[in-house]
Amino acid sequence: MKKLIGIFKDEDSIEKIVGGIFGAVAIVAAVVEMAIGGFDGTAVAGGIKDIAGTLITIVMLVVAINALRPKEKKITGFDQIFELEMNAVMEKYDPMVTYAGLESSKSFTDMMTYKIANKLDCVSGNASGAYNKLFRVKEGVAHIDFSVSETVFPGRRESVAALVVGKIAQSHGDFISKIETTKEGFTMKFDHPLVTDGDARELGRIVDHILLLYLAEFSRKS
Length: 222
Fold this sequence. Notes:
Structural class: alpha+beta
Helix content: 40-55%
Strand content: 15-25%
Number of strands: 6
Largest sheet: 3 strands, antiparallel
Order of helices and strands: HHHHEEEEHEEH
């Protein structure tokens, strides 16, 4: 039953079914006409001609419908796929994380910048407060710097960063070549520039994991 419902949700399948039905009806009619004509040479030739004409018409109709239907643009590339991944992450942790837009400076250009609230209990409906930098990324980078907010983890920023580094290295070490703490938080390095759709999806999973660890540590403090 589910397969049948799925067929009727598929526009291409509906076109093929309807076209097949009308084609079958036309072919049966041609065969009947040949039978009435006694299957003599003239009747058979006329029937074959009608069948061929019907098949050509059906094929042209299907091709025309497919050509006129707007084609969905396939989303590919690191930046676009990662944006989709982060949209899902932001929806999951709303309003804990926000997209701050593209950022440029002398050392980098057009980096997608994400920020994190300085009150992580906003995920429970409380006010989010101000937002601090979380990380920047774009296609082609080979390392990403993450910030651990002193506002979120007063006096614990270094210990939280060290904990996150250990957990992420353990869970995603096959993707990250090196991860270590910094003055602001931690940095992840990769053995290749991030350019593929797979890179974007894996990085999205890592960001999700980092935010989960932040929430766990914030809750433990509370």
